[in-house]
Amino acid sequence: MARQRKELEGKVTPIQRDLESARRDTHEAADKLAQWRTGWTAAVAGLGLEGDARPAEANAVLTKLDELLKKLDEADELAKRIEGIDRDARVFEEDVKDLVARIAPDLLDLPAEQAAAQLNARLNKAQADAARKDELNRQSQEKEAVLQGAQFTIKLMREQLDAMCRQAGCSLPEELPALETHSAQAQELHKDIEELEQRLLEQSGGATLNQLIQEAEAIDADAIPAQLDETDRQ
Hints:
The protein is an all-alpha fold. It has helices at about 1-45, 55-105, 110-170, 175-205, 210-220, 225-234. The longest helix is centred in the middle third of the chain and has 57 residues, at about 110-170.
């Protein structure tokens, strides 16, 4: 019996030590839990929640806060962009005013946007006018080149007419048509003479043209009618 008791006491002692250690751990855990709850209460209080709020509720609030912070960042960025646009608008207005004062004082009373639109319209018109001017200059140069070519041709023709006048022995180009007519008539007569000479040679019986001329000169023209009558009687 004593031995069994001793064995039981040997088993109880470790259990008692473990129990004491567990109690200490429990107290420490309770203390830590109390500290965590205190910190949790303070943390969620900053989110507008009670101390007994669950982590899911806190996470939902944190998500909303994160979204709100992003919205604030976007709003801040938008405000900066608006400020930049306003600054650019002021610079634009000043630039337009300076430009109008230098080149179009009649537009000074107009708002910057209208003045800029008027300046742009005038610029477009000026560019169109310049393009039209360039086109007219090009056409004028082409016509000038054609005119110069015509003048050169006229000069050559006049020189040719003068040379023809010198060759024809006349003083004015207006006399050339009459000379050309006479020349054509002379060429026609010369052609007729050549044809007659050819016919005479064909009927001469082998005599030359000079021999025929000599024989013709030796004939008494007054005696020809009597000779013809005699020939008829025979």
